[in-house]
Design a protein that fits this description.
heterodimer, A: mainly alpha, 434 Repressor (Amino-terminal Domain), two-stranded antiparallel sheet, 5 helices, about 55% helix, B: mainly alpha, 6 helices, about 65% helix
């Protein structure tokens, strides 16, 4: 098995999905049960959500986790 | 518990200016009591502020006991210190990272202070008669650990007297070091056990 070194640069399209649904960061935060600061950090890519939060987001947007999150360059 | 914590927290915050005022007043009023020629109002104010001071320190002691033993209170206090309003996983991640960084840095500072307090370095100039092979200076390097203060006052009339922490600087640093290591280890084990159960 090849060893994966360092951190994986993870991208997400939460901002796009949110825009498609026409909701604010505040509304999304409230619906998911987290703070707006966390939504901002996720959208900016400065914070990677936990698996549980990723599932909560995927349920909210009715889309798969792998469609919301991707690894840069793949 | 929540109501008690909130009440205690609010009291400690809002009463702190009065505590500070009393401390400043005490600094200038060296007699330890209100001036004898003061009016009844001033004497009354002195009494109220003094009782508030004692109550505040008692509250502070209770607060630190709660912080040491209650996870909920510790979390709340940590969030307040980190200036976070709400709690979610990112906030926990931030406080966790900040805690581990501050833990390691405090440990480093404590180890350095312990080293400074136990190491003894002396450079002396030797008198002409003491010089060895033409060398006129000597370097003494040593280390010593004294944990408890030696008793200075041996008054047989005194039954109980408490003035200060009965530890030397080295003892105090070692106590904080052991406390840091033990509390971190104990909390980490508790979290691991929680995950396994």
């Amino acid at each position: 098995m090849p060893r994966i070194k360092g951190t994986l640069p993870i991208l997400n399209n939460i901002a796009v999905l949110r825009a498609q649904k026409n909701i604010t960061q505040e509304e999304l935060a409230e619906a998911i049960g987290i703070t707006r600061a966390t939504i901002i950090a996720i959208e900016k890519g400065s914070y990677n959500p936990s698996l549980e939060l990723a599932f909560r987001l995927s349920r909210y947007f009715h889309t798969g986790i792998e469609k919301m999150f991707s690894i840069k360059g793949e | 518990m929540n109501k008690f914590y909130n009440a205690l927290h609010n009291y400690l915050v809002y009463a702190s200016p009065f505590v500070l005022a009393e401390v400043i007043w005490c600094y200038f009023q060296t007699s330890g009591s209100a001036p004898p020629d003061a009016t009844l109002a001033i004497k009354g104010l002195w009494e109220i502020l003094s009782w508030n001071l004692m109550l505040w320190f008692t509250g502070l002691a209770i607060f630190f006991c709660l912080i040491a033993f209650s996870t909920t209170v510790r979390k709340k206090a940590l969030f307040k210190i980190a200036a976070l309003k709400d709690s979610d996983e990112r906030e926990e991640y931030i406080t966790g990272k900040a805690s581990s960084s501050s833990y390691i840095s405090t440990l480093g500072v404590l180890i350095f202070l312990l080293f400074l307090s136990i190491v003894h370095v002396e450079i002396n100039r030797l008198s002409p008669g003491q010089s060895i092979e033409g060398h006129t200076k000597e370097v003494k390097i040593g280390a010593g650990i004294n944990i408890f203060e030696t008793e200075k006052d041996k008054n047989p009339e005194k039954i109980v007297a408490f003035n200060d922490i009965p530890l030397t600087k080295t003892g105090l640093i070692m106590l904080i070091l052991v406390w840091q290591l033990a509390s971190f280890n104990w909390n980490a084990r508790k979290e691991i056990k929680k995950d396994q159960s």
